[in-house]
Amino acid sequence: MDPFSSEGELINIHNAFHQGQYTEVVNFNTSAFSPENALPARILQLRARLALGEADAVLSELESDNGTPDLAAVKALTQYTAGDSEAALTSAQELAENYPDNGTVQVLAGTVLQATGNSEEALALLGKHQGNLEAVALIVQIHLQQNRADLALKEVQAAKRWAQDSLLVNLAESWVGLRVGGEKYQSAFYVYEELASADSTSAPLSIVGQAVAEIHLGRLPEAEAAITAALLKYPSEAGLIANAIVLNVLAGKPTGDLEKLLQTADPSHALLADIQEKSDFFDAAAAKYSAKVSS
Hints:
Layout: H1 5-8, H2 11-18, H3 22-26, H4 35-51, H5 55-63, H6 69-81, H7 85-98, H8 103-115, H9 119-126, H10 133-145, H11 149-160, H12 167-180, H13 184-197, H14 204-216, H15 220-233, H16 238-251, H17 256-265, H18 270-286
């Protein structure tokens, strides 16, 4: 889906989505949109609802309304989000085979393919895009997950030649900057700070980005202040809680209460799984040694 089509009609809702302002996207008034942009706008709203944890409701809505490849792609992503990875993968692969030039299929089926461990299939599908900035952003994310910052940077530089002022390109460049490091940390900080500091663009995602950049710059008190203030506004936001845990670890502070809070907010969060895995490793290692008691 191209946010620059029809005289930029989709730009505001598109930017709100990528700023993480999901409630604003859901409540966005799309009644004046042209007929050709009605479906792309609806897809963004469905994806925002997924981000807000409404997978079951979205899946129910799509059961009787997935006649287009675009909505079928949303359904595949919803299936994955709801925990049905097998059905999601099957759908994503079928969509990739039958509708490889569809922009929504590229992004959403590509997301499912990557999430289910099929990175090369995802990249092959995403590589068919024609000026799809979301496809570019996803390619960048995949390369970063593969620890190929060089390829991610190459993708960003290519996109900047035709979408220099795009929010999504600026964000993608910041993701790469946080991986590359050095002076790029400061550049990434400026992007996230600008988003986080204005009420019209601020959201948990931008605040987390700002805090992560602060951490890399060695400014732990500033990062902690940003996360603490954000938690007062978004007390159940899992991403903020997870980063608060990381900050406490770096500062040598206890994390137990925050871990309980994260368990309530998102029991399946990756950080909790990582903590449990490391705890299990420690227990397994400790079990190899028995205390020697002298008689």
